[in-house]
Design goal:
The chain is mostly beta strands. 8% of the residues lie in helices and 33% in strands. The protein has 1 helix and 11 strands; from the N terminus they run βββββββββββα.
Protein backbone atom coordinates (compact mmCIF):
# COMPACT_ATOMS: atom_id res chain seq x y z
CA UNK A 1 0.00 0.00 0.00
CA UNK A 2 1.34 3.39 -0.97
CA UNK A 3 2.10 5.88 1.80
CA UNK A 4 -0.16 8.90 1.95
CA UNK A 5 1.26 11.62 -0.26
CA UNK A 6 0.25 15.23 -0.46
CA UNK A 7 -0.09 15.68 -4.20
CA UNK A 8 -3.35 17.54 -3.73
CA UNK A 9 -1.89 20.41 -1.68
CA UNK A 10 -2.33 23.47 -3.87
CA UNK A 11 0.47 25.97 -4.27
CA UNK A 12 3.02 24.10 -2.16
CA UNK A 13 5.69 23.40 -4.75
CA UNK A 14 4.65 24.91 -8.07
CA UNK A 15 5.82 21.71 -9.75
CA UNK A 16 3.87 18.84 -11.19
CA UNK A 17 4.05 15.98 -13.62
CA UNK A 18 2.09 15.70 -16.86
CA UNK A 19 1.05 12.24 -17.96
CA UNK A 20 1.73 12.01 -21.71
CA UNK A 21 0.72 8.41 -22.58
CA UNK A 22 -1.69 5.79 -21.33
CA UNK A 23 -5.28 5.97 -20.09
CA UNK A 24 -4.57 9.10 -18.03
CA UNK A 25 -2.78 11.01 -20.81
CA UNK A 26 -3.31 14.75 -20.56
CA UNK A 27 -3.73 14.92 -16.81
CA UNK A 28 -1.34 16.90 -14.64
CA UNK A 29 -0.69 16.13 -10.98
CA UNK A 30 0.94 18.56 -8.58
CA UNK A 31 3.90 17.34 -6.54
CA UNK A 32 3.56 18.29 -2.89
CA UNK A 33 6.36 17.05 -0.65
CA UNK A 34 6.35 13.60 -2.28
CA UNK A 35 4.31 11.86 -4.97
CA UNK A 36 4.29 8.07 -5.35
CA UNK A 37 3.69 6.27 -8.66
CA UNK A 38 2.66 2.62 -8.59
CA UNK A 39 0.03 0.03 -9.39
CA UNK A 40 -1.55 0.18 -5.92
CA UNK A 41 -4.83 2.15 -6.08
CA UNK A 42 -3.75 4.19 -3.04
CA UNK A 43 -0.74 5.69 -4.89
CA UNK A 44 -0.86 9.36 -5.92
CA UNK A 45 -0.60 8.20 -9.54
CA UNK A 46 -2.01 4.69 -9.81
CA UNK A 47 -1.20 2.87 -13.06
CA UNK A 48 -2.94 -0.32 -14.15
CA UNK A 49 0.10 -1.84 -15.85
CA UNK A 50 1.63 -5.29 -15.23
CA UNK A 51 5.14 -3.79 -15.50
CA UNK A 52 4.50 -1.28 -12.70
CA UNK A 53 5.28 -2.31 -9.12
CA UNK A 54 2.87 -1.55 -6.30
CA UNK A 55 5.20 1.28 -5.22
CA UNK A 56 7.34 1.87 -8.30
CA UNK A 57 8.84 5.37 -8.14
CA UNK A 58 8.56 8.62 -6.23
CA UNK A 59 8.88 12.26 -7.19
CA UNK A 60 9.74 15.15 -4.91
CA UNK A 61 10.77 18.75 -5.23
CA UNK A 62 14.34 19.23 -4.00
CA UNK A 63 16.40 22.43 -4.28
CA UNK A 64 13.94 23.98 -6.74
CA UNK A 65 13.77 21.01 -9.14
CA UNK A 66 11.87 17.76 -9.50
CA UNK A 67 13.77 14.62 -8.48
CA UNK A 68 12.71 11.05 -9.28
CA UNK A 69 13.73 7.87 -7.48
CA UNK A 70 13.05 4.25 -8.37
CA UNK A 71 11.69 2.40 -5.33
CA UNK A 72 13.33 -0.94 -6.13
CA UNK A 73 11.06 -1.96 -8.99
CA UNK A 74 12.03 -4.97 -11.09
CA UNK A 75 11.20 -3.36 -14.44
CA UNK A 76 12.92 -0.07 -13.64
CA UNK A 77 12.29 3.64 -14.02
CA UNK A 78 13.72 5.39 -17.07
CA UNK A 79 14.69 9.01 -17.73
CA UNK A 80 15.24 9.79 -21.41
CA UNK A 81 15.40 6.03 -22.15
CA UNK A 82 18.12 5.41 -19.52
CA UNK A 83 17.38 3.27 -16.50
CA UNK A 84 18.09 5.15 -13.27
CA UNK A 85 19.73 3.61 -10.21
CA UNK A 86 19.92 6.69 -7.98
CA UNK A 87 17.77 9.76 -7.34
CA UNK A 88 17.81 11.78 -10.56
CA UNK A 89 17.13 15.49 -11.02
CA UNK A 90 14.76 16.21 -13.92
CA UNK A 91 15.15 19.09 -16.35
CA UNK A 92 12.65 20.66 -18.74
CA UNK A 93 11.94 18.28 -21.59
CA UNK A 94 13.02 15.12 -19.75
CA UNK A 95 10.78 12.11 -20.30
CA UNK A 96 10.18 9.63 -17.51
CA UNK A 97 8.89 6.15 -18.30
CA UNK A 98 7.26 3.94 -15.70
CA UNK A 99 5.96 0.76 -17.33
CA UNK A 100 4.33 1.92 -20.55
CA UNK A 101 3.45 5.38 -19.18
CA UNK A 102 5.47 8.47 -20.11
CA UNK A 103 5.45 11.49 -17.80
CA UNK A 104 7.19 14.87 -18.03
CA UNK A 105 7.91 17.44 -15.32
CA UNK A 106 5.73 20.53 -15.47
CA UNK A 107 6.00 23.89 -13.78
CA UNK A 108 2.56 24.94 -12.61
CA UNK A 109 1.21 28.48 -12.62
CA UNK A 110 -1.51 29.56 -10.20
CA UNK A 111 -4.28 28.21 -12.48
CA UNK A 112 -2.47 24.93 -13.11
CA UNK A 113 -1.82 24.31 -9.43
CA UNK A 114 -5.43 25.04 -8.51
CA UNK A 115 -6.71 22.75 -11.25
CA UNK A 116 -4.39 19.92 -10.25
CA UNK A 117 -5.39 20.27 -6.61
CA UNK A 118 -9.10 20.41 -7.36
CA UNK A 119 -8.96 17.43 -9.68
CA UNK A 120 -6.63 15.33 -7.57
CA UNK A 121 -4.50 12.64 -9.10
CA UNK A 122 -7.14 11.34 -11.46
CA UNK A 123 -8.34 14.47 -13.22
CA UNK A 124 -6.97 17.44 -15.06
CA UNK A 125 -7.29 19.02 -18.44
CA UNK A 126 -3.62 18.77 -19.31
CA UNK A 127 -2.70 22.40 -18.93
CA UNK A 128 0.87 21.20 -18.45
CA UNK A 129 3.70 23.77 -18.84
Amino acid sequence: MCPAGDSEVSGQSGFGVEIRTGPRAGSTVEIGRRLVIGSDPSCDISLDDPEVAEEHASLRVHDGAVEIRDLGSESGTFVNARRISAPTRLADGDEVRVGSTVLVPAQLGAAGAAGAAAGGAGAGAGSGA
